[in-house]
Design goal:
- The structure is a single chain.
- The protein is an all-alpha fold and 168 residues long.
- It has helices at 5-15, 22-39, 45-66, 87-105, 109-120, 125-132, 136-156.
- It has two domains: 2-69; 87-156, Arc Repressor Mutant, subunit A.
- The chain is 66% helix and 0% strand.
- α2 (22-39) packs across α3 and α5 (109-120) crosses α7 (136-156).
- It is rod-shaped.
- The two termini are 65 Å apart.
């Protein structure tokens, strides 16, 4: 069998370029010839070897066509459509958001209004002052107090980094 190996590989590469691993087809062909020879005589080893290899190559091509999964050599080349967090991360984030909502809800009313308008709705300080009939200085002061209270509330519940780059 081995004297035919180079010719067999050349035949498979030329006739079946879609076969990804010619070496596997050759090895599987040897195995099948060995099993067949154990049960019956083989008249022409070369012809039988090439027939088996051809059938295995065709089977491999069919499998690759019907396969729903394509192999990828370099995972970094994949284009990810959704970069969603896993279930644990999603639940953790929901819990943090719920705690943040609780923190904001526990603020004094004026302070809460300023924090919601500035931080959550993203309205500039001057506009918040005009909307609430407050001075710029009061809005700035209420915003600073509210943010500090929210941070303390969250830290007490072991939540870090919601407003800054802090981590623990």
């Amino acid at each position: 069998m081995h004297p035919h190996e180079l010719h067999l590989k050349a035949y498979l590469r030329g006739s079946f370029p879609a076969v990804r691993d010619v070496e596997d087809v050759v090895q599987e062909s040897y195995l099948r010839i060995w099993k067949t020879r154990a049960t019956q005589p083989i008249r022409s080893a070369r012809a039988f070897l090439f027939t088996i290899a051809r059938r295995l190559a065709l089977d491999a091509i069919r499998r690759n066509r019907t396969s729903l999964i394509d192999s990828v050599g370099d995972m970094s080349q994949l284009h990810v459509l959704h970069d969603r967090p896993d279930t644990a991360e999603a639940v953790d984030m929901q819990e943090k958001i719920r705690l943040l909502a609780d923190a904001v809800e526990n603020l004094p009313s004026r302070c809460r209004d300023v924090v919601v308008l500035r931080k959550i709705k993203g309205i500039p300080q001057k506009e918040v002052a005009a909307m609430l009939g407050l001075s710029d200085k009061t809005v700035e002061s209420q915003f600073t107090r509210g943010m500090k209270r929210c941070e303390v509330y969250l830290r007490e519940r072991r939540v870090f980094g919601m407003f800054t780059d802090e981590s623990r």
